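Batch job 17 of 40 flagged for manual review because the log was empty.
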Amino acid sequence: MKNILITGGSGLIGKRITQLLEQKGYKVAWLSRSHQGQKSFLWDVAKKQLDQESIEWADGIIHLAGAGVADKRWTDSRKKEILDSRTHSTQLLYDGIAKAASKPDVFISASAVGYYGFNTGTALVDETSKAGNDFLAQVVVAWENEVKKIEELHLRTVLLRIGIVLDAHGGALGEMLKPPVAAPLGKGDQWMSWIHIEDLANLFVFAVEKTTLQGIYNAVSPNPATNYHLTKVAAKAKGKPFVGIGVPGFGLKLILGEMAAMVLGGNRVSANKIQKAGFEFEFPVLEGAVKEIFS
């Protein structure tokens, strides 16, 4: 396997995966709406257009594309965009793979721990746990169902349910530490299943290379943390004041609307299955992960 096609390659995670793969000698191309600095093929999900050559070229596909769930307030049109960007893009890839004379060996798709629901309390959930019934959970269920159709085309198929990605250049940490004083959200006792971006990128490469890996795996560190603890540790590493009094939940609901449930709830998610498969985390402990990010 030498050619890897990535959707959503220009994003935070896609760029790091691209770097790691190229360092290991892979050829990487992005599937995008416009030609970029990276080798790229064109697609337009809304118009159901896909350069079929991209599928014939690829030995493996990494599917990251999807509208950001926290980028905008959840209006009805935004919720539709969040869902359609995931399911329609996967359907387009399915169609391309189905008619390809030369099919890829592996299809690796991003998914999300949002599958388990906004708030699963203190229970440790794993890949066999049931889906939630809120908006994001149903988005993930629909998304995963489309990916499972690709498995029927006799490709090795892997779904990685990603937790909260910690990185110095964007994502959750940047938002949490944006105010002049860091504070937990709500009571702060909600669990946050996080993963360092380096471990996440390495996990996608692991999924490319480990040919026995198939099915659904949680992409989270082995040591989830409460919102209070994560915020406090991040503030200390960043050198920012921390106040232990939480941002009131009602205030967050006024600002964020329905999306507030995403930050006021939480999940304590197990990484046991991926560890048993042989993946070793470089940053399994929060303090070490955050220290590296802000070093």
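Reviewer: the log was empty due to a logging misconfiguration, but the result itself is present. The chain has a mean pLDDT of 93. Unflagging and moving on to job 18.
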